[in-house]
Amino acid sequence: MNIKQNDQKFIANTYNRFPVVIKYGKGSLVYDENDQEYIDLSGGIAVNTFGFADQAWIDAITDQLQQVQHTSNLYYTEPAVKLAELLCNKTGMKKVFFSNSGGEANECAIKVARKYAADLKGKDYYTIITLENSFHGRTITTLAATGQAYFHQDFTPLTPGFVYARANVFSDIEQLAEQNKCAAIMLEVIQGEGGVNPLNQEYLDQVAEFCVKNDLLLIVDEVQTGNGRTGELFGYMNFDLRPDIVTTAKGLGGGLPLGATILGDKVQNTLTPGTHGSTFGGNPVCCAGAINILQRIDDDLLAEVKQKSDYIINTLKNSKGIKNVTGLGLMLGIEVERNNQDIIRECIEQGVLVISAKDKVRLLPALNIPQDILEQAINVIKRVCAKTEHP
Ligand SMILES: Cc1ncc(COP(=O)(O)O)c(C=O)c1O
């Protein structure tokens, strides 16, 4: 079968795919249909926490698969409860709603924020302040939350009730909160799709304080930054924040679809029977895999993530053709002098899978990528970036 041709023929044309058919992988190595080997630094866009075919994760999910694959949420199951307890214990938060994706985790957060504000202040307090250049998902409501006009075009009218503040400009928050009846502020501590841009500590402190003072909920979208990616379990922990709602997905499932909306003190009882639900949310197989993943994101692994991050930043930062490296942990953006798409293409040709984030080259490797494989890949990136356009 010609996979590339049939993909174009039968799959909706929403993705600009790289010209690689991925057939199998092990750890951070992946192979195409011709058994050509690649080092994967894209991690399924921050999903494959422990790379490909990770045995401990496979054991956890196959074990569960042989018992119960699905029950519906009309019955109790152990994996979801165990995973929720782990998430609460590790964050100090109170309750979890499970879904299947980042977009859905954010939908739930938005519903919780609206209901909380409606109960507390009245139904017209539904506006949520999000940030310009943010990314929160592709459903009509999470698109509305996404502060990028590019994603909005063609799909209006979007869900009303979102206004956008410039990232790191606190006066925008004050002004928008003054002009609108607000329920919450929602942000990514590092804007991932927006170009791997971390927010400032001072700004985040101001926003957090403002939320407390004005009874606005602080929602942190940890879909990309969560689950050890930044060198802490969740990105907000790098900034000492105490969000009211944390959303996550991607790396929590490790390759199976799973979303989680983690609820803090204030909002733990906002959802009541019938107010939200999901057929597959809390699926026992996905949750069994996630328990395995979460248990392995311990202090040693997080220290390893930080060490590898330092290695990448120190190797690339002042290297020829590279202007800057942004991000935290193993969520890094390389600001390059040449066109990033050319660099990504050349890296792939040389056996290293990297992706873009706006005009940067983005790295999201498996958290347990072996140092020698990482060094090999970083040397390729360094060489490709140093190439001049017209030799
Ligand atoms: C910060 C953030 N939020 C939400 C999403 C949407 O997640 P999903 O594609 O699982 O719906 C993404 C996906 O890239 C993301 O990076």
Short descriptors:
single chain; 391 residues; alpha/beta; Aspartate Aminotransferase, domain 1; Aspartate Aminotransferase, domain 2; 2 domains; seven-stranded mixed β-sheet; 19% strand
Number of helices: 13
CATH superfamily of the largest domain: Type I PLP-dependent aspartate aminotransferase-like (Major domain)
| Number of separate structural domains | 2
Name given to the CATH architecture of the largest domain: 3-Layer(aba) Sandwich
CATH topology of the largest domain: Aspartate Aminotransferase, domain 2
Average pLDDT rating: 97
Beta-strand portion reads 15-25%
Strand order of the largest sheet: 4-12-11-10-7-5-6
* Largest sheet properties: 7 strands, mixed
Structure characterization notes:
The protein contains 13 helices and 17 strands. The protein has 391 residues and is an alpha/beta fold. The strands form four sheets. A seven-stranded mixed sheet has the order 4-12-11-10-7-5-6, with helices on both faces. It has a four-stranded mixed sheet with strand order 1-2-3-15. A hairpin with a 2-residue loop joins strand 16 (355-357) and strand 17 (360-363). Helix 3 packs antiparallel against helix 10 (284-296), helix 4 (78-91) packs parallel to helix 10 (284-296) and helix 11 (299-316) packs parallel to helix 13. The longest helix is centred in the N-terminal third of the chain and has 19 residues, at 102-120. The radius of gyration is 21 Å and the shape is globular. The mean pLDDT is 97. The structure holds pyridoxal-5'-phosphate. Pyridoxal-5'-phosphate (PLP) binds at residues 101-103, 106, 135-137, 188, 192-193, 221, 223-224, 249. Residues 101-103, 106, 135-137, 188, 192-193, 221, 223-224, 249 line the site of pyridoxal-5'-phosphate (PLP).
